[in-house]
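Apologies for my clumsy wording, but are you able to produce some protein sequence, whichever is easiest, and the tokens describing how it folds?
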Amino acid sequence: MRVLNIDLDFFLNDIAYFVHDKKRLNSNEYRPWSETELRFFLEHNCGLSKAVHGKIIVHHHEAFPFWRSLIEKNQLNYPFELVHIDGHADLGLGDDAWVYIVTELLNKEPSERWYPKKEKLRFGNYLSFAIACRWISDFTFVTHHKWEGRDLMSVHFEDFDPRKGFLQMKKYRKEDIGFNLPEKTPLNYEPKIPFQCIDYRDFTSDGDFDYIVLSQSPGYTPKESDKLISIFKEYIIEI
């Protein structure tokens, strides 16, 4: 199965980092796409010729319990292919949840990882939790034209190197955590997951998605971006 995972902050002229999540961006600095540009991208690049079942959420980490609910209802088979269209990788850079993942969560059986500590799951790291749960079989990150590749969480990649094209989580002892972590031998390796970054101008799809998630991400978008949500609703059958 395939899931299209979209953040509204992608459809801006620039990418915001380290923002106040309760305050909207300045519309003079961050300008949303036009309706024409959005429709062309959804239909030409994403291949959406018809509406797909999905959900519109406020904060992007709400995708995690949505997918979990679908999986528990046997409505989403896993592992699934993920197409992530976002200004950010959402793999955990900027917080310490990765330590919890590699030293605690990965100590559990995969099926027991589905309910991580709530305070650890955030909009900037939820995809690392989905990977830890082994929900994702293939990860395609469709990038913004201003994206510079600085938010890929190297600890979650094969040999700490995103250029190798594989995500691979590793389990460690707590005492191993430090600046020399790449020199430590992991207790265990998780399965490899193919990973690719592709500029949105080079991305095309046949539109064969089983579910769509759209996140408003108010801390990373100006209020003017909200007008695009009504357009997305033509392509999403909300469930």
